[in-house]
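Section 3.1: Structural characterization of target chains.
Under the original work plan, the team committed to producing a structural model for every single-chain target entering the pipeline before any wet-lab resources were allocated. The record below documents one such target. The sequence was received from the expression subgroup and is listed exactly as submitted; it comprises 268 residues.
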Amino acid sequence: MKPLPRILSSLGAVVFWADAAAGQSQPPPLSAFTVATIKPTAAKDDSFAYRVLPGGQLTAMGVTLKFLIMQAYQVRAFQVSGGPNWVAADRWDIQAKPEGIEGRPSSAQEAVMVRALLEDRFQLKAHRETKEMPVYALVTAKDGPKLAAAADTSVHGGRTPPGAWSLKNVGTADLVRYLSQQLSRTVIDKTGLSGHYDVKLEWTPQHSEGGPEALGLPVTPDGATPGASTVGPSIFTAIQEQLGLKLESTRGPVEIVVIDRAEKPSAN
């Protein structure tokens, strides 16, 4: 499982730019968070943010334990199972600082530190399992791909607001990661394509598709997807018509994280 993108802002026009070290094996951090403040998010505060700054300082607002587990285990929301209802409902504001880290920690270092924080403050106990589950296979459509070669290889990533993606210099391995996030299901690359492309994709998101629950956050009161368009094709039709690719339903092994125990943190 490759690292989740660093999340810089709230839902809607979330910006993902690939980490140059993404997917590379990294050593564990020299230290975990030595100081951490965790407080319930104010009842009427809908803000959401998650940032790891140079030096390893973590600032989070409006995050759920489920979201934090996603960061700690480097999985998607649909790969987190079990636990009490509050895990995906109650939101928290966190300020945490480590010692012994210079510069920005790698995704692997960040995951280890967050996991240690959850085990300490939320009394989290969890384990990994692999289950046979529904997945999508991304394949080339009958008439072949309609992908434009990357015009600028100095950038990588892009903007992925619901219903309107604009990606630059991405491969199909990147595309399946974005699709997994959007569709809450593992997507396997079966295209055989090895190039890098500029991708624009426009569609009408379905109910809850790519919504707050895709980030392990509570569903909006009306169940709507923030920023979604109101007209246009489904994502399945758009992928075939606009990209010359196709999503096929199948089954395959999916790694999940099962919550064995979780407790709300004490006030501090």
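The first strand starts at residue 15 and ends at 17.
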